[in-house]
Amino acid sequence: MATPVGRPLSQYDLPDFTISNDREHGHGLSRPTTYSAQSSGHVAFPEPQLYRSVSQQGAGRSFGTAGNEMRRHRPSHSEAYVNTVNTPTSISRNESTASFLSADSFNDYDSISGDSYEEPAYSYDAHEPSVYDRSVDSLSQDLADVSLDSEEGLRRFQSHELAGPEEEWHRLVPEAAREALGNDEVQRQSVLFEIIKSERDYVSDLEAVRDVYIEPLSAANPPIIKPELLKGFISQVFGNVAQILAHHQLMLAALFARQREQHPLIQSGTFRTAYETYIKHYPLAEAHHRKELNRNPDYRHFIQSAASDPRIRKRDLVTFLSRPVTRLPRLNLLIEQLHKLTEHAYDHPDLDTLPTISGILKDFIKSTQPGIEAAESKVKFWALCESLVYRKGEIIDLDLYNDNRTLVYAGPASRRNRQDATFSGWTDLYVALLDHYFFLTREEKRPNGSIKHYMVSRPIPLAYLRLGSFNGATESRRIREEKGGLLDGLRSRTEILYPFTVYHASNKMNRRYTLYVGSEAVRRKWYAAFVDTLAVYKARAEGNMFFSPQKLSEGFFRIAAPGGALTMGRLTGGATSAAPFDANGRKYLAISCPSGVYVGHRGREDFRRVLPFNSASIAAISRLNGKSFNRFVILHDGMLFSYALDILARVAFGEATAEVLDASLQRIAGQDSSTVLFFRIVVVGSRTLLLYAAKKLLQVSLTLHVLEVIDSPEAVLSPRRTGGSKHPSSFRRFGEPGYVPKDAHDVTALTKTVGICTTDGIVIVNPTNLANSSATVVPDFSNHSTDLAMGLLKTKVEDARPLGLVPCGSSELLVVYDTLGCYITRHGEPARKSGFIRWETPATSFAARGEHVLLFSHNFIEVRNKGTGKLVQTIEGAGMRMLYAPSVGEKEPILVAMRGDRKASDSMDDKIVELVETAELSASTTSPPPSAAMWEDWDL
Predict the structure, then answer these.
(1) Where in this chain does the record put each CNH domain (predicted)?
(2) Which of 213, 391, 609, 778 is a Cys-bridge partner for 828, taking CB atoms 3.0 to 4.6 Å apart?
């Protein structure tokens, strides 16, 4: 089975809540100010322009202008009841004066002093009472004449000591008082009482969540949730419920204080919420809870045990988790009902306040909808991820549990199997578009009710996804009726389907998918989702490149355009190999192409042809391990020879003649009956070695020779040998030659050994003792007959071409083939349950750099994490070839040739670029790659 890479449950990072004491005033109007106990921070929320509520009753004093003229705000209904004679009072911190909270109140307790008291936005002369004020005074006097002593009932109500039927406003108010208020005000006060009661019950439920679920879950011994996952699980499921509880405990205390002070006639106020974070996270919290409930028996038992607590009243935890989500809509309904019951015949202050509160709540509830939809989409995405069934043997790191992953759009679609009109000519699929991949799956419902999605095709990365036609003609599909009757098998209905086509950019024919959906609207929705998602993906990819192509040359090297006239005198041909080097204190670049070898300064277009050898393989050995070698190696027409690097650079810029360069020529191999097929420069220990494979006529195998490169001072002291010596002084024979299969085509250097790439695998040999070295072929499939997964891997690699080996950590190697990759142990056996990684497009060469492996093909460069195989970047181009990748040294450049942007009628540019590794902008740094010391105990 495929091995998708996951991660443990991550913590839910709560946003920082910041207490703000700024008091900004819009349009010159001051906002209401209250005082309360210290509160935790809150989410910023719009502030209405309201009448001052009774929460300023004790602070009713306003400080006037010059002359200390005293002004007061219009007395509210409750103020008229409490103070039949309005007299100014000083600012007080008496908690009993708290009321329904204003937009600030439960965040700004203890934040107001006499010096900072703000004058209300609307003030009235106390000597000119309104009609409403006079009615309040009269009503208050009537209530004062009624003997009303219900403080004990209020205390018992607030303490949860009353039975359910007794917890009603009319049960706590004498009949005489109800008659004095009248039916309309009785209904209004009942709604206000219901608001306080619902707040009390709400706080009790949140406290029950804390006491019955969170704290026992945290303190359980033995643990119910794994200790390393416990903190993240509680954060994910319960979110910031503790912060919401803290806010509402303060709010409830203020409501109780106002109720004690003003019962039975309460003046309403304004509310403040801080729920955005919780509401938007709620779908994720519920999903985490249900997931843990299904997979963890201990957690399931804990939830069942908690249901027996009297405070839970056998309610499900989901009910408690949803309480903050449903609180605001229910509260808004109560406020709207309260507004309807407020007398419109008088200038009641609540007629202005309540619509403002309701408007704020409606706007806030509406503003949370996008967040809720995003969270619900995340839940659907998780459900899809957990239901995916991959093809056997394939390792696919889709990075599905990255916090940035999103499910953009998903739904059913059909695909035609073959061109016929039978019922079996169609396959029903479930297709999903993510922010980085496109899935085609077959949905299957299990007997237990679960749903599995089987991959019918490998997921397509968005970097390779291309859109075809979205306006094709409709087609009809016959669907068999399934009602179960005897004749229903012969009955069918016709469904009209709308096609659209997508395909894989590197395999346009074999991975081309025409899908059918049920309506034009759905087809348009898919098109919009594809276009938007691809645009976002492209922008994100361009800003998050692991390797950035930096142009070194564009315009000098030119190739013939398809169908253009042959003008070889003006064309250099495409680059075939490159060799960067340093000489005389400057950086140079040598390029081999069909018209010869050119040398120029790196980053400049001043190339000059210095050697006439066409399409030669070249390498520069300037300085390695502190030694200077100063040799330029060329393989041309089966012959291997070298020149002095410094003279090569001087000739390129007219500082030396070609004769001087020819005088530095050293012939290495190929001048006898053998033909050199390939060579590599490798470093083994402290030695720099040149390996080359040669073949003689009628020879059934290749001979592998090893020469040690001598640094310049030693070469000077050792003059060129004559008398038939095959090897010049810059290269000396190192051990006896060995033999490798005739189909060997490349060499990969490891720490102590090298790998010879052949058709049947990679042969591991010791280059310092080829004649006596025991060859080992990797991967080792000797147990494939008893291991089905290993047998499947063996079948997959039989038709693949080995390209090389890449060390991964201290215990594994990545074997790179042209179409796939697999991991082996230090003993050469397949690792990771014989899983394999399939490349998106066949590679012709590869390069390793840091934590990544780069795979080169004609139109794409895949950048993958070498430890997981995850595709992290794709570079697209045309005619791309890897020119140079260092076998040693992380500082050496990776050079690539590709088609340039400038085209003429008969030719076009061949651009040379360097792939520069980028670094994250964050402070975190990438762990260094494994050092060579890790490989010292290997026998490879």
Answers:
(1) 572-890
(2) 778
